[in-house]
Amino acid sequence: MTSVSASDASGRLLLGAKEDGSEAGRTLLGKASPFVGRDGDLRALRAYWDECVSEGTSRAVLVTAPAGFGKTRLLRELVAALRQTEGAPTVLVGRGDMVAAGAPFALLASALRAECGVRAQDDGAAARSKVRARVTRNLPGEEGKRAAEFLGELMGVRFEGSVELTAARRD
Description:
- This protein is an alpha+beta fold.
- About 50% of the residues lie in helices and about 15% in strands.
């Protein structure tokens, strides 16, 4: 399962989720295939995004269709278009198993680990350093340090010691 979220300082848009492991585009006879029949859907998604940015609001959009109807392609086309805009959004992609323990947070944890550059082979110190560096890039000082600890906890990167984190672990 893959969850994709696009955001900038003005808004957030959750595009949906899909099951598969591939982010590469499909080809037909070795050539990229044209994007056909989903222009209206793409315009609607762009309109939601534009509203989020201009109004400072959030939206959740769920795209559903049978397998092979172009949901993944629609997502790729939207992300490609958004990346060409001024103030292009950060796009986070997470993977998880819908039936695994903690599934609701697994998608977010996976997306955050990827954004922070945390790899399975990283030792604790390296993982903590990566999380801290990424979080404090946008949230400096003590607030960033505290946020990194809590996000690290969500990602399975253990931080030691703050009173708030210790209390949250007991809850």
